[in-house]
Amino acid sequence: FAADADVRSRRTALAALSNIGDPAAAEALAKAAEADTVYDRGHAASLYLGFARRLAEAGKKKECVRACRDLIRARVEPRDRHILCDALAILVGVEGEGALDDLLAALGNPDKQVREAALTLTARIPGEAVTRKLVAALKGAATDPRAEIVGALGRRGDRSALPAVLAALKDEEKVVRLAAVEAAVRFGGEK
To answer: Which residue, among 124, 122, 121, 44, has the nearest Cα to 80 in the 3D structure?
Structure first.
């Protein structure tokens, strides 16, 4: 029924498969998420995300991670930003620090909402290792992502980021310097 020609039957079957959360449904849901129409594509992708959540609830982390990463790879258009952000959030919930590379990759996304979601999600992952990777992401980042990362470092409050924040005060781009001022204030405005 998941490939039924009748739209109502197909959507009902896909919703059922999503809610059941059986790994055997992955292929049908993934295929449905590649539908031709914008509505069907978005609806099926939402069901696929629900399926990923069910997998996580059932302790099937590997399958959940695979579903999320499949969606992240497939969703590159701006209209799909909510799918990408939700998939990243599920990954962080399941993988924790294991999702860090996915979040760092999202910092290169041209969509500011995706980048901001990724930075917000990094805040859920504690530790200096995360801070070090965010500081490393500053190198080579375009202007807006660089400013966003500096802001996130300030919100993180990890004092190991202070040298990078202070260095950003001398950045050639005003938006980065302004983000650095705000971040430095969060550290107590030292130096």
So the answer is: 44
Name the region of 96 (left: φ>0; alpha: ψ -120 to 50; beta: rest): left
User: What does the pLDDT read at residue 5?
Assistant: 72
Question: Which residues are CB-neighbours of 79 under 8 A, at least 6 positions away?
Answer: 38, 42
Whether the predicted model's global pTM rises above the 0.90 cut: no
Distance of CA 69 to the CA centre of its chain: 10
Count of alpha carbons within 13 angstroms of residue 175, beta-carbon side: 8
- Condensed to tens digits (0 to 9), the pLDDT of residues 89-128 reads 999 999 999 999 999 999 999 999 999 999 999 999 999 9
Q: Which residues of 129-163 are buried (b: 16+ CB within 10 A; e: fewer)?
A: ebbebbbebbeebeeebbbbbbbbbbebebeebbe
* Distances in whole angstroms, Cα of residue 37 to Cα of each of 11, 14, 18, 40, 168: 13, 16, 20, 5, 45
Residue-wise pLDDT tens digits, 6-33: 778 888 888 898 988 889 899 888 888 8
Q: Which helix (H) or strand (E) holds 51?
A: helix 38-57
C-alpha 152/C-alpha 149 separation (Å) is 5
For the chain, give the percent of residues with pLDDT over 70.
96
Nearest CA to 185 out of 143, 153, 137, 160 is that of 153
